[in-house]
Amino acid sequence: MMRTNYITIMMKHFEQMNLEVAAAAETVLDASVLKDKDTVYDCHRFLFVRSSGEGKLIAQNKEIPLESGKLFILLAGMPHRIVLEPGESATLQWCHFRSSYEDRDLYRALQIPFHIQVEDETAVSGIFVCLFEELARNGLTSKLKIKAAMLELISYYLDSLSLIDNTAPTDDLQKIDMVLKYIDEHLADNITVENMAKQVYLHPNYFIVFFKGILGYSPIQYVNLRRMEIAKSLLLKQDSNVSSVAGQVGMQIYYFSRMFKAHTGLTPSRFRKQAAFIAASSGEDSNEREEGKSR
Questions:
Q1: Which of 116, 131, 161 is the endpoint of a domain?
Q2: Tens digit of pLDDT for each residue in 232-256?
Q3: Residue 187 lies in a domain
Q4: CA distances for 87 relative to 55, 65, 84, angstroms
């Protein structure tokens, strides 16, 4: 459960995060241009090693080998430096980006690993190339494409984090884990801020700040979003009906229908019909493909 909620916290936060890419490029470094002191940036950095001779990146009292396919995320204010052996060089792709100030404290609280080993180096390098091209082009849709590329890069990082065994979770993560579990187990009930705060022995006012600081949503916003997520999955079941689904997520049908439409753009009934139509169409396409193969 903790592993799932760790990734849930990260995903919810990144969904809310506003990104601004300040710069991105590919750089070839050699030992002669590197300084023997730490570098500190006022923005976050993604750093991807395309190729490298013998060298290392030093940060957080750790020495990480500069190996091809290594992807680093270096937070704003994190001292670090790159060291290469004499005569060696490294080709790096990087981007500098900014988000809200609160993000930095969140990343540290969650103890995000600052480096991963990439499996598909070509795919990740391609994301950086997209960033380079769109920053240079600065066209009508460039901002959207840059944001999409950054979200893809972050998604790749999150997918890799889900495979990493973490050390013991922090106190904050343990508290959030308890609250998220409580919410999922009581969606059919009247969930209040006071009841959620009691789960982790916090004052309701402080709990609201604490919860939003980690997930990016207020507690009630998160509860409602979770209800809508569960409702969508329930509505896809053939034996479900709108009234029973509303009850299972703890809402009266009138308010449920209004909130669902605000969340999805469709009424619950329309959502069910559309999902059923898409499923039926997909089934017909599959049958046609199978018939085509058999001919």
A1: 161
A2: 989 988 888 999 999 999 999 999 9
A3: yes
A4: 11, 16, 8
